[in-house]
Amino acid sequence: MLGIDIFKNMIAINPIRSRKLPLVRNAEQMSKSNFNQLNKKIFDSIKELHLASGHYAITSSGPLGIRGLRQINDGDLIVDDYLWNILTKKHTPETKNGLTKIVLSEGLVEILGQGSFFNYLDPEDPTVERQIRSAEIIDGLPFVKLKYIRHFKEKLGREKDLEDIKIIDQYLLGKKFE
To answer: Chunked in runs of 10, what are the mean pLDDT values of the chain (178 residues)?
Structure first.
């Protein structure tokens, strides 16, 4: 159920018996309904973690996935220092290609703290805390605002990020005329 609220101040992590979802590179390969169902499995896995509200937000492709704009392959979360410290006592972070993260739910959920993904912050970069504080609550989960997602995707500039920027721009342009 997508309407379940996150339990405030509950930090317990429950083991989830989910499997990594199959990668679909092109959303046209499957109907929007099918990829929304796959996205829902990931968001349900995040809800099952019962993380403390106000201490995390879903980032990267998650805000696109919740809006049905594209399939996501995992749920990337940013967490504040408080939650990061609690989680690292229970789970060992791994560093790969300069990215430090905690991987849960058999790879369906990846958790990032401040400094996990950029070694530096430009003055215009929103901090993790700012992104969490301003998160949009959709179906009971906090999502980083699309303007921040766009900012970081533009900064990364990978091919997949440039594709997401086009999707975000089209979505936001459409919202202006509704």
So the answer is: 30 35 45 80 96 96 95 96 95 89 93 74 85 96 97 92 96 76
pTM here is 0.79
Residue with the two structure tokens 């215009």: 124
Q: Which helix (H) or strand (E) holds 47?
A: helix 32-47
Strands 141-143 and 136-138, bridge-based pairing:
antiparallel
DSSP, residue by residue, 113-167: -TTSS-S---TTSPPHHHHHHTPEEETTEEE--HHHHHHHHHHH--HHHHHHHHH
Taking residue 133's Cβ as centre, other Cβ atoms within 10 Å add up to 13
Neighbouring CB atoms inside 10 A of 178's CB total 4
